[in-house]
Please model this.
Amino acid sequence: MLGSLTAWRRRLGAMVGGFEAGQRGRRLKSFQPSRAHINTLIGAAEPDITARARWLVRNNGYAVNAIESWAGNVVGAGIKPSSLIEDAALKARVQRLWLTWTDEADAEGFTDVYGLQRRAARELFIAGEVFFRFRPRRPEDGLSVPLQLQMLPAEMLPLTHNEVLPGGRAIRQGIEVDALGRRVAYHFLRRHPGDLTDPGLAGETVRVPAGEIIHLVDPTDGGQLRGVSRFAPALVKLFLLVQYDDAELDRKKVAAMHALFITTPAPAEPFDLVESDGTGGERTMDLQPGQIVLLEPGEEVQTSAPADVGETYEAFQYRTLLQVSAALARRGGALRRARPAGLRAAARGVRGVRVAAAEVGLGRSAEGRTGRDRADRRRPEEPHPGAGRARLRCRTGRRRDRRRPRARTAPGAGVRSRPRRHPTGNRERRLRSRYAVPVGRLRLR
Model:
């Protein structure tokens, strides 16, 4: 019954037409994507994707450059908070306490707060998510603030931990939710599943309340629980490109090892007295600069002429890396042949990365934006508060108009003088380029 209904629906769709993307004709009959939810796809494929992404970061220069560029654009030298306390003395005291705590914040003792931000950005790029746990400390530990942060990679929260609990609660991919779908707790492993040096019990989990966990993730679908690696759309192409480069390099290496080939009608007879047998049983001959070799009758010498990579090698590499850069959301991959407009677009892309980082918890809050950001959000109809001042002050204090001197001509020469430019033309043009004011909207007096 169900099969006949599906066949009838297909025939009806073929007769009606509609969207070509929904047809099942000859070109799309092999295009059958999965209809599973994003959580099901993540649970089935994310462990392998994360492991392969980590392998690329350890072994591939393009992957290292991508992740370092992304982490540098998101975090830079560190995202520093700004206190809004009005009391100057209290603000200075809080600032000193913050600076002292930043050096003690890492529970592992390797880095400071800003180093944790960089590591979090790297993990967010590789695994699509990262966890931080608040670790309260005792007063006798000697910390300025009895609190530290422990970074937990995505592998510490098992994707296969799914369980139904009483009271309407459930554990979904290691995250415990209540009857309303709110996150209540996280069930972390006590030891990393791939760390064989940790003497802890493998597979043992511990329940941590959600109030003690910071989950940095950039969800893309509704109801998504866990993150997806940013390497997912570029992983296959990048790995195949690595294999292609290795094969090409190995081919050139083998071809460069052969300098000459000597052919003889009697291969059993030696071709020279200075020849020697290699370890593999091959007949070789040592050559010296300016050496003259006497050949037997019938023997010929042929030089090795290995095939070149061809003129399409560089173009192929460029297009492949361009696709990889687009998949990794990096505009810098197209800067090699970019015009100045492309360079400006890449600069805007860096700001877009910072905005995306703010949405997942790594960027500045709305209260911490600078005046420059507020100026960028100003409507085009609103000129800058200082846009109406068309005169400048000299060092002597007197005001002068910003205008060019009029060209002088001899009387009766018949030469037309150069037209005088508007005294505010240059300033108006600069303001338009700075505040993106359309032509005709800004008038200076």
In short: The chain has a mean pLDDT of 75. The chain has ten helices and 14 strands. Residues 34 and 41 are 9 Å apart (CA to CA).
